[in-house]
């Protein structure tokens, strides 16, 4: 892989950017009192203090005509992307017939307000005029080169225009190349050509590939990862990856966003969120605003946590001007301000994420109406009325005390929704529950009302055995212990517990019970160093029915002593016909001293081939794979963990995944 390209002329722009930051700090002094990131500061002040940008996509009409729009645009943001007017259909609607009026308007506004401009977008299948789409291959490539040379060249010496989306949305949802007129006429070479033309037009500009639905780790983002890796290996000047971030509260948050950004960063590129908005199904409600605010703070927090993330651009800022209702008629309200320019909880969430929560001291409202339902001999379902919070509720702690009085409450779980299922309870037993809410700044609410639950007695006369526990796996294996976990069983009268069975060695011998558990996990201690054991579990119900035994997992304890040892756990994150992604693969230092490197070995089933990897260096010999740490994640303190991941292609119809993960140091 080639190191990141640092063109000589880039230093000119860097100096200007430093000057802009210095200028911002100077301006900020009279406004800010004790701390440079005071609650009164606009978003851009806090972002600049963290070394990031916070930007918005500008619409030219209100920028010219509405004072309220302009005021927020210049006060709150230090970065601008043109929402439409730098696109091909605006800038060159017919061959060599140029219109820079909108683009110039935005660039001039940015220059006047010390904001950086991200050019959007050079080569896209959408908003490109018909005259381009109908060209033959040679003429189309020439048109692309001319367009890039003229448009990028126009701003090449403007210090505010620092970056460009060179190619936009080149993948389909399965990770194949989008069947666009670009691809169908020129093949995938149009991508490398576009980057080379852009570099020639402005050697200083940061050149990005941009797409949507690539925020989490999935087939599409992995295709993008593989493409960026391969382009850079061929010295194609890809400097940056843009994650658009068009999110919707009804589809859930891509919780591996930060990890995804990190794997791209490990390729040596800058990453950025380029078009963030979080739409809701209309109408707005307090609960939807709260969820939306949480999504916004999650995205900003992810960017703050990744050094290579340059900043976050929001796709507009007021609900008065947003593409969402035009495209999704029953959805909207996706931005930080409402249509009357009033700040929404999403604004506060972004603000507080940028200033690291230092200005938010408001606790969420107390969860109420805590109630229990679906009580069995071993489980209960809890639900409550959701809390609200100015920066969004991050989650709930579920607290439990034994009996109907006395004892003390201890946390037994967390939930990001207003419900929770507590399993592994004993039959005929009373428990008390409470919940409390937490926000993104760490403020905790008062506890809810208490609900008392008594589990049922189990099924007398019941003859139905629990389902077989599945996916038994071991993790955190040390020289004397191992942690087992499995997929919980179900049962008509409720599972009361599990028997943990163990046999000596890797084969032979017989299984004997070594413990019980009321949850789907168990820690087996007192083992000998450097020794193999096999484990199985089986479930019991209240009537004494016993399930079949689970799969067998073989564990070899580490060598003990004072040196480092490691364990590994592997998770299949997503799979489809023809492939799967395993991640996170978690490596933990189980020893008593730091380790500086680790090696994980595993087996790929026949016909399976590795097609992508991140945060580790994986080599294969036949079907045996060896993963070594990357340069930045080999050092682990005792107890510390790191993760890596990979993608595999497999024969159609084959549902198996990689297995037999073992970890060793070095
Ligand atoms: O300006 C004309 C107006 O004169 C005309 O009366 C009106 C009639 O439909 O259309 C107006 O143009 C519209 C333009 O937005 C400006 O409002 C276009 O029809 C409309 O298609 C265009 O939509 C833009 C869309 O890209 C085009 O695909 C959205 O504003 C813009 O937010 C959206 O942005 C894209 C990013 O570029 C790439 N990623 C996804 C993102 C959201 O779709």
TrEMBL record:
<dbReference type="GO" id="GO:0045493">
    <property type="term" value="P:xylan catabolic process"/>
</dbReference>
<dbReference type="InterPro" id="IPR036116">
    <property type="entry name" value="FN3_sf"/>
</dbReference>
<keyword id="KW-0326">Glycosidase</keyword>
<feature type="domain" description="CBM2">
    <location>
        <begin position="559"/>
        <end position="666"/>
    </location>
</feature>
<dbReference type="InterPro" id="IPR013783">
    <property type="entry name" value="Ig-like_fold"/>
</dbReference>
<dbReference type="GO" id="GO:0030247">
    <property type="term" value="F:polysaccharide binding"/>
</dbReference>
<comment type="similarity">
    <text>Belongs to the glycosyl hydrolase 10 (cellulase F) family.</text>
</comment>
<dbReference type="InterPro" id="IPR006311">
    <property type="entry name" value="TAT_signal"/>
</dbReference>
<dbReference type="GO" id="GO:0031176">
    <property type="term" value="F:endo-1,4-beta-xylanase activity"/>
</dbReference>
<keyword id="KW-0119">Carbohydrate metabolism</keyword>
<dbReference type="InterPro" id="IPR017853">
    <property type="entry name" value="GH"/>
</dbReference>
<protein>
    <recommendedName>
        <fullName>Beta-xylanase</fullName>
        <ecNumber>3.2.1.8</ecNumber>
    </recommendedName>
</protein>
<feature type="compositionally biased region" description="Polar residues">
    <location>
        <begin position="462"/>
        <end position="486"/>
    </location>
</feature>
<dbReference type="Pfam" id="PF00041">
    <property type="entry name" value="fn3"/>
</dbReference>
<feature type="region of interest" description="Disordered">
    <location>
        <begin position="455"/>
        <end position="486"/>
    </location>
</feature>
<dbReference type="InterPro" id="IPR003961">
    <property type="entry name" value="FN3_dom"/>
</dbReference>
<keyword id="KW-0858">Xylan degradation</keyword>
<keyword id="KW-0624">Polysaccharide degradation</keyword>
<dbReference type="Pfam" id="PF00553">
    <property type="entry name" value="CBM_2"/>
</dbReference>
<keyword id="KW-0732">Signal</keyword>
<dbReference type="InterPro" id="IPR031158">
    <property type="entry name" value="GH10_AS"/>
</dbReference>
<feature type="domain" description="Fibronectin type-III">
    <location>
        <begin position="468"/>
        <end position="560"/>
    </location>
</feature>
<feature type="active site" description="Nucleophile">
    <location>
        <position position="275"/>
    </location>
</feature>
<feature type="signal peptide">
    <location>
        <begin position="1"/>
        <end position="33"/>
    </location>
</feature>
<dbReference type="InterPro" id="IPR001919">
    <property type="entry name" value="CBD2"/>
</dbReference>
<dbReference type="Pfam" id="PF00331">
    <property type="entry name" value="Glyco_hydro_10"/>
</dbReference>
<feature type="domain" description="Fibronectin type-III">
    <location>
        <begin position="366"/>
        <end position="458"/>
    </location>
</feature>
<dbReference type="InterPro" id="IPR008965">
    <property type="entry name" value="CBM2/CBM3_carb-bd_dom_sf"/>
</dbReference>
<feature type="domain" description="GH10">
    <location>
        <begin position="57"/>
        <end position="353"/>
    </location>
</feature>
<dbReference type="InterPro" id="IPR001000">
    <property type="entry name" value="GH10_dom"/>
</dbReference>
<keyword id="KW-0378">Hydrolase</keyword>
<dbReference type="InterPro" id="IPR012291">
    <property type="entry name" value="CBM2_carb-bd_dom_sf"/>
</dbReference>
<dbReference type="InterPro" id="IPR044846">
    <property type="entry name" value="GH10"/>
</dbReference>
């Amino acid at each position: 892989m080639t190191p990141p390209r640092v063109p000589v002329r880039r230093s000119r722009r860097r100096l200007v950017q430093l000057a802009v930051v210095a200028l911002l700090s100077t301006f900020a002094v009279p406004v800010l009192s004790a701390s440079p990131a005071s609650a009164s500061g606009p978003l851009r002040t806090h972002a600049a203090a963290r070394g990031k940008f916070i930007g918005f996509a500008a619409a030219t009409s209100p920028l010219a005509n509405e004072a309220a729009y302009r005021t927020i645009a210049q006060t709150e943001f230090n970065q601008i992307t043109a929402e439409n007017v730098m696109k091909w259909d605006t800038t060159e609607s017919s061959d060599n017939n140029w219109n820079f009026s909108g683009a110039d308007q935005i660039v001039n506004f940015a220059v006047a307000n010390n904001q950086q401009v991200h050019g959007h977008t050079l080569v896209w299948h959408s908003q490109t005029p018909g005259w381009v789409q109908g060209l033959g291959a040679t003429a189309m490539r020439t048109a692309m080169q001319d367009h890039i040379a003229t448009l990028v060249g126009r701003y090449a010496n403007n210090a505010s225009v620092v970056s460009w989306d060179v190619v936009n949305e080149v993948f389909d949802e399965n990770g194949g190349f989008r069947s666009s007129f670009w691809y169908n006429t020129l093949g995938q070479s149009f991508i490398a050509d576009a980057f080379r033309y852009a570099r020639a037009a402005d050697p200083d500009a940061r050149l990005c590939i941009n797409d949507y639905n690539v925020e989490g780790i999935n087939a599409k983002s992995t295709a993008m990862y593989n493409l960026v890796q391969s382009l850079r290996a061929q010295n194609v000047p890809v400097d940056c990856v843009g994650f658009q971030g068009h999110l919707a509260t009804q589809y859930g948050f891509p919780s591996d966003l930060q990890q995804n950004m990190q794997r791209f960063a490990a390729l040596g590129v800058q990453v950025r969120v380029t078009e963030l908005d979080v739409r809701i199904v209309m109408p707005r409600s307090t609960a939807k605003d709260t969820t939306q605010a949480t999504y916004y703070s999650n995205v900003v927090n992810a960017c703050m946590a990744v050094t290579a993330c340059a900043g976050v651009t929001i796709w507009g800022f007021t609900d008065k001007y947003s593409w969402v209702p035009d495209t999704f008629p029953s959805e909207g309200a996706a931005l930080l301000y409402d249509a009357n320019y009033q700040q929404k909880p999403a604004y506060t969430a972004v603000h507080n994420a940028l200033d690291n929560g230092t200005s938010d001291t408001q606790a969420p409202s107390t969860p109420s109406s805590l109630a229990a339902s679906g009580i069995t001999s071993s489980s209960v379902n809890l639900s409550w009325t959701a809390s609200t919070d100015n920066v969004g509720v991050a989650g709930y702690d579920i607290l439990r005390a034994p009996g109907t009085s006395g004892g003390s409450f201890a946390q037994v779980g967390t939930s990001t929704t207003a419900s929770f299922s507590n399993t592994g309870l004993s039959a005929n037993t009373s428990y008390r529950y409470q919940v409390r809410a937490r926000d993104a700044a760490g403020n905790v609410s008062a506890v809810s009302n208490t609900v008392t639950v008594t589990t049922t007695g189990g099924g007398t006369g019941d003859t139905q055995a629990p389902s077989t526990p599945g996916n038994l796996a071991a993790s955190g294996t040390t020289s004397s212990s191992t942690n087992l976990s499995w997929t919980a069983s179900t049962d008509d009268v409720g599972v009361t517990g599990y028997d943990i069975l163990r046999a000596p060695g890797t084969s032979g011998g017989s299984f004997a019970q070594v413990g019980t558990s009321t949850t789907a996990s168990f820690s087996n201690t007192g083992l000998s160093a450097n020794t193999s054991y096999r484990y199985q579990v089986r479930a019991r119900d209240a009537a004494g029915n016993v399930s079949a035994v689970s799969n067998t997992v073989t564990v070899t304890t580490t060598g003990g002593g004072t040196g480092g040892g490691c364990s590994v756990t592997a998770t299949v994150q997503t799979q489809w016909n023809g492939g799967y992604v395993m991640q996170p693969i978690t490596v933990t230092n189980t020893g008593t001293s730091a380790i500086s490197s680790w090696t994980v070995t595993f087996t790929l089933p026949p016909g399976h081939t590795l097609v992508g990897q991140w945060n580790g260096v994986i080599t294969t010999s036949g079907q045996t794979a060896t993963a070594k740490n990357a340069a930045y994640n080999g050092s682990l303190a005792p107890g510390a963990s790191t993760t890596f991941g990979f993608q595999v292609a497999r024969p159609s119809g084959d549902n198996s995944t990689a297995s037999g993960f073992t970890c060793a140091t070095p």
